[in-house]
Amino acid sequence: MTSELIAVDWGTSRFRAFLLDAGGKVLDRISAEDGMSTVPAGGFAAVLERNCGTWMKASPQAPVLMAGMVGARNGWAEAAYASCPASPKSLAGSMLKVTERVSIVPGVIARDESGADVMRGEETLIFGTEVRNGLVCLPGTHSKWAKVEDGAITDFATFMTGETYALFHQHSLLARLATEPEDLTGFDDGLEAAKDGTGLLNRLFQARSRVLAGNMAGEKVGPYLSGLLIGAEIEGAFKRYGSDHTVTLVADGVLAKRYVSALRSYGVGIEIISPERAFLDGLAAIAAAHNQDIAP
Predict the structure, then answer these.
(1) Least reliable range by pLDDT among 153-162, 171-180, 284-293
(2) Could you read off the pLDDT of 97-154 as tens digits, one per residue?
């Protein structure tokens, strides 16, 4: 069996790898709990060998291209951030070669007068959407919104939506009020609260005061919090980039449904692509750009 690429998505908590043929078809895949945070110093090469060694021996010409937190300061090796505007070609030219065969895609940094923002791994997903001009949203623990122009990431912003939800839902006074089974109509209440201009911190406390006043049941607390935070994220992104764009959403499952529901309330166009497909197509685009650079 031969292939054109071994694609590795190596994050903080998980290791995922794909064996791709010349046309980008997935021939085989691996998912393991060998996240970057579990690998001892100097142990990255051994983990890669354990998970992908069979593929590497069977396809000796296939390059190994890795993206994600494996290129962070505490990863295998730190791949310096590439600056915006960032394209598959510019990232291909900035890849960090850790062995003769293994390379790491760099993250991306955006700078403006307010400071800097960074991403690692999301850039690959953005390129996999094949968006030429528009907004790409990648929901998650640290949601990313990226502005793409002529196929390049020209700016992006990070929102700590997922992490904030977990903190308030599990470790704040709201945790004592949230009950199950959840009433999902609370999500729409949270979205409306995010739009009213009163302020996020005030509306967070209302998840408590509404219950105490008898205006909201405990079953609505979790969905209200989710709607409020996702709504605040969208409000911030649209304030920065405007709402006159089609939003390409890289998500699946419950998270995709919640963001689609939220975005529809703003009347914007929505396109959806699965994270796995975006990752594979994005890494293939970077690999193709790299091959063009080294072609004689």
Answers:
(1) 284-293
(2) 999 999 999 999 999 888 999 999 999 999 999 999 999 999 999 999 999 999 999 9
- The number of helices, as runs of H, and strands, as runs of E, in the chain is 9, 14
Tell me how many domains the chain contains: 1
* Both tokens assigned to 173: 């006074």
Length of the chain: 296
Q: Which has the closest alpha carbon to 7: 278, 273, 292?
A: 278
Element (H, E) at 221: helix 221-241
Q: Helical H runs in 93-212? A: 122-128, 161-171, 185-195, 200-212
CATH of the domain at 227: 3.30.420.310
- Report the C-alpha gap between 159 and 143 in whole angstroms: 5
In a domain, 191, yes or no: yes
Two tokens, residue 25: 């078809």
Residue that has been written with the tokens 């996999």 in this structure:
128
Q: Work out whether strand 134-138 and strand 143-149 pair parallel, antiparallel, or are unpaired.
A: antiparallel
